[in-house]
Specification:
heterotrimer, A mainly alpha (534), B mainly alpha (286), C alpha+beta (366), B: 286 residues, mainly alpha, Helix Hairpins, Four Helix Bundle (Hemerythrin (Met), subunit A), 74% helix, globular, C: 366 residues, alpha+beta, 5-stranded mixed beta sheet, 3-stranded mixed beta sheet, 16% strand, binds heme-A, binds dinuclear copper ion, binds copper (II) ion, transmembrane (chain A), transmembrane helix (chain A), transport (chain A), Cyt_c_oxidase_su1_bac (chain A), Cytochrome c oxidase subunit 1 (chain A)
């Protein structure tokens, strides 16, 4: 499968090209970067900015929903906010944040000098800001941003103004970025591992990203196809999603969700990877069931291709199709369960300490599992038919996305930031951030389960007055949760970039892996001569 | 491996480059222009074309850099393997891209169409009969004639299959270090591709003028033009790649062992070939 | 403060709404079952984890063990969840199959989702031929607008009340066919355990059989544009006798309302009638001032189409165009003629062809 360690011996010549050695400073360092660490930083900064932007939209949504009635905005603007919140968070915040982690950590973890295609790596990044500009600018064009939901269902999407086209083109660009980024990651992992680093010795984070990248390459083009057809339906008179010409609106949903469901695993598998690094480090005990973790991750990825229609149970499929998708979806709980059990078994009889990374990792396992269980409940078709398009679904996916993906990102940040910045973050503040986030997260999103069960539909700018109380609680929680993230930025991240206690090369005594063998902060160039792994 | 990797670094990492970010900017212009253009704003078209042109300039410069690095012997055998992986995965992504459109054809034809014509749907479309190549249940689509596999698509199939063979001959010649022979067969391949595109263009004209088959001809026209058009675009891309490779062959860039650019373009060409076979069966025959 | 709505959600409701059909009841208990199983697993898994967190920590002096795999337990915790999942799927399958069985219905009703109201046509069974539109009844004075406080107190059925309720008899199997005119909507009544998307150009079906007389409320459950939150669904389940009465009055009402398309109207008559049609159907997009929403919905005031040839405007109203729905199925000839005449003589519009008669619309339909 891989060609590692075949020809490294004889070409250790030191005739490196000179310009790869000088470390650029100032604007050139960022704009023209080919260094994986710089590009990693760029991704992380970009993602956090988008998290703030998407978060502000969420807070506007929550403000409007504080009470019934229309207080602050017209419903069309509300729908724009919901749509853009979803798009910005998914494509702008969570995915690029994980790519940032991949850029930083994969070369360090496998002992490679950089990503396989350093220049293309920068291109992948520099496609993101243009896409974000296109997306955000659409708020100011006539008709405003697209308001068809982040799923952009046809034929509502054909009714939208130019904002929809801008969103389509933005997604095209982001798709290109993801595909290039994924090709880079796969190639790096398959081809650039240090001698002795076999696939089954690779850190879990690399494994999960390898599989994620595969998913991305497989599904991003499908999304591109779906929105291209939307574009031609809008402007060039095709009838893909128009029954009058023999097309079918539901076909859009099939194509979209063929992308969409793997997409949600794209947002969680790297999170699994991060957690699988952190739990053993703080339990001071090797990861339990490494091989089964790899198999479980692969099974999740494979199954993710045959479950998409669980988002479409109310479109009215034949009963056999509904049954098939219900069974396949429920099956995913099994490999996911294996992961959860393995983490618990890793903790079992360990010698645990609870610094902030571990807190976030444990918090992740606890709250993600709740989200997983609500997912399983949604997978049961008769129940889903009751709950589809209600706040129960909103609660489900914020449990897996915010308390899942986002918490894992925080965990990873606390775990690796000493390596990135060279300084230790402030432990007390980290703990405040964790407990504040955990509690306020649940205040925000737990009541949404009740709202959904009682029948409050999602994407509603106004709602029956019986739903008021839980909505008020959710809104208060959301503002608190948002403030905790501002606190994270101002009290944790920025001070830690500026200074603080110097971090040793390996700040966590239980941590393992090549990344801890280089100094903190990691020098501009690492592993130019590959280390040998035994 | 070869003399190349002797002086090459363990793994070449390019230094700072302005092309990626410039490419980002030019693509922003392109897409911004496109958004305006599709909404009927004229400057959008100019912006779009300017953006595409500038993007091509950036790519030209970028690939120029890469080629000179390659020629300077910076790419070790390991870098070569990276190129191979990346090209394979890129082609995989293209397969999935085509998959979306093939999927649309399959779904519309085998699932939606029978539905629209079934008993329940008589409430909405009392007269609709499920026959592929219909004018849609609402009757808002002008009548048209469907495509047949003869003669053009079959000729085109033969052309593309032949081009696969000529390309392989060129590859063998390259491996034996016969530069002139490589160039001739490569040229033949590109020529076959160009003739293919010529026929394709002719077929489109005929569709519009003789068959009244247009992009707006309901789901049949939509899928037909989307699939064949997207494929035609790929043939064009492939032909451009092969032309660059031909230029480099003539310049003497490649050696018998070291010619990934050739192979990458060849893989791509074969992929486009295979997609055509799928199209030929699914679009023209069935 | 607001009270529980009848047939809709209760205040501080924390579970599914009270079921009114057997299917909804099955869903209710299915959900309870799932909840209990998941809770049990959750408690089991996390009591192990928290036990470990408490006991196996460095601060209490626990030394780390070194084990890192055990094929036995791994097989075990793959097989056991697998079996649990199968156990969950079995009852779900049973319910699902009965949910999909729409055969042998007593009454068949077709419902059409449109931006932003529901149309109903009684296709088969008692009441056949009845057809009406059902729109939100809650006045905007209860909703308010940005910067404008609502001037009226909100009722208990705020946003869940309509002008024309759907009447069905109790204990009869009702087959509901859904379709849509413009975009996808979703017809849903939580108490029935019914939610079925309404897809433009396609029909789907579902069914319900209600055991308790009463009014039941639901909300459109698929994003359908800006008024998505304002197109509720209300079903009034009545006794057989009451249903008969309703059918009678409804039929009489329809006969009285039916317009004769050959009647010749004056401009003023049509304008008056057209204003109502406009307010009920067009104002949401094109706005009361006829200015539309720039970029999304075109202005009618000063529009070239409205001031141009009447045939072109008639065609657009009948067949739709881009985002504009086709009205031929929803509006009568008289209504279409009236609303066109209204737009041609209102705001600053002074069209040369200033009147369209119902007969012309009827002719244009062909
Ligand atoms: C990170 C993202 C993420 C993840 C990981 C998941 C995970 C899962 N999701 Fe979720 N989902 C979303 C993101 C995600 N989802 C989003 C964004 C939407 C809405 C999209 C939209 O409409 O906008 C959605 C919607 C959604 C729906 C459609 C709801 C609707 O619209 O009607 C369904 C239905 O089946 C579903 C199911 C599941 C299941 C079964 C899992 C499983 O993978 C969960 C598996 C995990 C567990 C079950 C817990 C751990 C397991 C154990 C402890 C083992 C023991 C357990 C048992 C044996 C039971 N999801
Ligand atoms: C992918 C990740 C992700 C993340 C992280 C979030 C985060 C949040 N989301 Fe959302 N959400 C989605 C993905 C995500 N969401 C998706 C996919 C949808 C579906 C969209 C659709 O229906 O199409 C959705 C929909 C959605 C809805 C439903 C809207 C509707 O149906 O109409 C709601 C409602 O409460 C909501 C709320 C929130 C809140 C309160 C947060 C909070 O976690 C956010 C926390 C806030 C911050 C992090 C910001 C911090 C900044 C400040 C406090 C401001 C300070 C200001 C200055 C300094 C100037 N989200
Ligand atoms: Cu109709 Cu939502
Ligand atoms: Cu899913």
């Amino acid at each position: 499968m891989s060609n590692t360690a075949v020809d490294h011996a004889h070409d250790h010549s030191h005739g490196h090209d000179d310009h790869s050695h000088d470390e650029p400073h100032g604007w050139r360092r960022y704009l023209l970067a080919t260094n994986h660490k710089v590009i990693g930083n760029l991704y992380l900064i970009f993602a956090f900015t988008m998290l703030m932007a998407g978060g502000v939209m969420a807070l506007l949504i929550r403000s409007e929903l504080f009470q019934p009635g229309l207080q602050y905005m017209q419903p069309e603007f509300f729908n724009q906010l919901t749509t853009m919140h979803g798009l910005v968070m998914v494509f702008g915040a969570i995915m690029p944040a994980f790519v940032g982690f991949a850029n930083w950590m994969i070369p360090l973890q496998i002992g490679a000098s950089d990503m396989a295609f350093a220049r293309m790596n920068n291109f992948s990044f520099w496609l993101m800001p243009p896409a974000a500009i296109l997306l955000m600018a659409s708020f100011w064009v006539p008709g405003g941003a697209t308001a068809a939901g982040w799923t952009l269902y046809a034929p509502l999407s054909t009714q939208m103004g130019p904002g929809m086209d801008m969103a389509i083109f933005a997604i095209h660009i982001m798709g290109a970025s993801s595909i290039m980024g994924s090709i880079n990651i796969i190639t790096t992992i398959l081809n650039m591992r240090a001698p002795g680093m076999t696939l089954m010795k690779m850190p879990m984070f690399c494994w999960t990203w390898l599989i994620t990248a595969y998913l991305l390459i497989a599904v991003m083009p499908v999304l591109a196809g779906a929105i291209t057809m939307t574009l031609t339906d809008r402007h060039f008179g095709t009838s893909f999603f128009n029954a009058a010409g023999g097309g079918d609106p539901v076909m859009y949903q099939h194509i979209f969700w063929f992308f969409g469901h793997p997409e949600v695993y794209i947002m969680i598998l790297p999170a699994f990877g991060i957690v699988s690094q952190i739990v053993p480090a703080f339990a001071r005990k090797p990861l339990f069931g490494y091989a089964s973790m790899v198999y479980a991750t692969s099974s999740i990825a494979i199954l993710s291709f045959i479950v998409w229609a669980h988002h479409m149970f109310t479109t009215g499929m034949p009963v056999t199709a509904q049954l098939f998708f219900m069974y396949a979806t429920m099956l995913i709980s099994v490999p996911t369960g294996v992961k959860v059990f393995n983490w618990v078994a890793t903790m079992w009889k360990g010698s645990m300490t609870f610094e902030t990374p571990m807190l976030f990792a444990v918090g992740f396992i606890f709250v993600f599992t709740m989200g997983g269980f609500t997912g399983l409940i949604l997978a049961v078709t008769p129940i889903d038919i009751q709950l589809q398009d209600t706040y129960y679904v909103v609660a489900h996916f914020h449990y897996v996305l915010v308390a899942g993906s986002l918490f894992a990102l925080f965990a990873g940040y606390y775990y690796w930031s000493p390596k990135w910045t060279g300084f230790m973050y402030n432990e007390t503040r980290g703990k405040i951030h964790f407990w504040g986030s955990l509690i306020l997260f649940n205040i925000t999103f737990f009541p949404m389960h009740f709202l959904g069960l009682a029948g409050m539909p999602r994407r509603y700018a106004d709602y029956p007055a019986q739903f008021t109380d839980f909505n008020m609680i959710a809104t208060i929680g959301a503002f608190g949760f948002g403030l905790m993230q501002v606190y994270f930025l101002l009290a944790v991240v920025i001070p830690c970039i500026k200074g603080g206690k110097a971090a040793p090369a390996k700040p966590w005594d239980g941590a393992e892996g090549l990344e801890w063998t280089v100094p903190s902060p990691a020098p501009f160039h690492t592993f130019e001569e590959p280390p040998v792994v035994k | 491996m070869s003399s190349h990797s002797a002086k090459a670094p363990y793994y070449f990492v390019p230094g700072p480059s302005q092309w990626p970010i410039l490419g980002g900017v030019t693509l922003l212009l392109t897409m911004f222009g496109a958004s305006a253009w599709v909404n009927g704003i004229t400057w959008g078209m100019y912006l779009n074309f300017a953006g595409i042109f500038l993007t091509l300039v950036v790519l030209y410069k970028w690939f120029g850099d890469a080629i000179s690095e390659s020629e300077a012997g910076q790419y070790s055998a390991r870098v070569d393997v990276s190129f191979r992986w990346s090209m394979s995965w890129f082609i995989f992504s293209e397969v999935m891209f085509f998959g979306a459109f093939f999927g649309a054809l399959f779904y519309a034809r085998s699932i939606s169409m029978p539905w629209l014509a079934d008993l329940d749907h008589k409430v909405l479309w009392p007269d609709f009969a499920a026959q592929w190549g219909n004018t849609g249940p609402a009757g808002t689509i002008e009548a048209f004639k469907t495509m047949t596999p003869f003669p053009i698509p079959t000729i085109n199939t033969a052309l593309l299959l032949t081009s696969g063979v000529t390309l392989t001959i060129a590859h063998h010649a390259l491996r034996e270090g016969q530069r002139a022979k490589t160039a001739i067969w490569l040229f033949a391949t590109i020529l076959l591709g160009a003739v293919f595109m010529g026929f394709q263009a002719f077929e489109y004209i005929e569709a519009y003028s003789e068959l009244n088959l247009k992009l707006t001809s309901g789901i049949y026209g939509s899928t037909f033009f989307m699939l064949t058009g997207f494929h035609g675009f790929h043939v064009t891309m492939g032909a451009i790649m092969l032309s660059v490779v031909l230029y480099r062959v003539l310049r003497g860039d490649f050696t018998a062992e070291h010619h990934f650019a050739f192979e990458g373009a060849a893989w791509y060409w074969h992929f486009v070939d295979v997609v055509w076979l799928g199209l030929y069966v699914v679009v023209y025959w069935l | 403060a607001v009270k529980d709505s009848q047939g809709g959600p209760a205040v501080l409701e924390m579970n599914l709404q009270t079921p009114a059909t057997q299917i909804a009841e099955q869903i209710y208990s299915l959900h309870n079952l799932m909840l209990v199983i998941c809770l049990v697993i959750f408690v089991a898994v996390f009591s192990v984890m928290f036990y470990s967190i408490l006991k196996h920590r460095k601060s209490v002096g626990h030394k780390a063990a070194t084990f890192h795999e055990s094929t036995t337990v791994e097989i075990l915790w793959t097989i056991v969840p697998f079996i649990i999942v199968i156990g969950m799927a079995l009852p779900a399958t049973k319910t699902l199959v009965s949910m999909k069985d729409t055969s042998n219905a007593d009454i068949t009703i077709k419902t059409t989702g449109m931006q932003w109201k529901w149309g109903y046509d009684y296709l088969k069974g008692e009441g056949e031929g009845i057809s009406f539109l059902s729109t939100l009844k809650t006045p905007r004075t209860q909703v308010g607008a940005p910067g404008v406080k609502p001037t009226e107190a909100r009722g208990d059925n705020y946003l869940m009340e309509v002008d024309n309720e759907v009447f069905v008899p109790v204990n009869k199997k009702i087959r509901l066919i859904t379709t849509a005119n413009d975009v996808i909507h979703s017809w849903s009544i939580p108490a029935f355990g019914v939610k079925q998307d309404a897809i433009p150009g396609f029909v789907r079906d579902t069914w319900f059989k209600v055991d308790k007389i009463g009014v039941y409320r639901g909300l459109c459950s698929e994003l359908c544009g800006k008024e998505h939150a304002f197109m509720p669904i209300v079903v009034n389940v009545v006794s057989d006798a009451d249903y008969k009465k309703w059918v009678d009055t409804k039929k009489k009402e329809m006969a009285a309302n039916a317009d004769d398309p050959s009647k010749v109207w004056t401009v003023d008559e049509l304008k008056q009638r057209g204003e109502k049609v406009y307010a009920a159907n067009c104002v949401a997009c094109h706005q009361a001032n006829g200015k539309g929403v720039p970029g999304a919905f075109p202005a009618l005031d000063g529009s070239a189409v409205v001031n141009g040839e009447k045939a072109a405007q008639t065609a657009i109203l009948l067949n739709g165009k881009a985002g504009m729905p086709a009205w031929k199925a929803t509006l009568s000839d008289t209504e279409i003629a009236a609303v066109i005449t209204y737009t041609r003589n209102n705001w600053s519009n002074k069209a040369a062809e200033n009147i369209v008669q119902p007969a012309e619309v009827l002719a244009a339909r062909k």
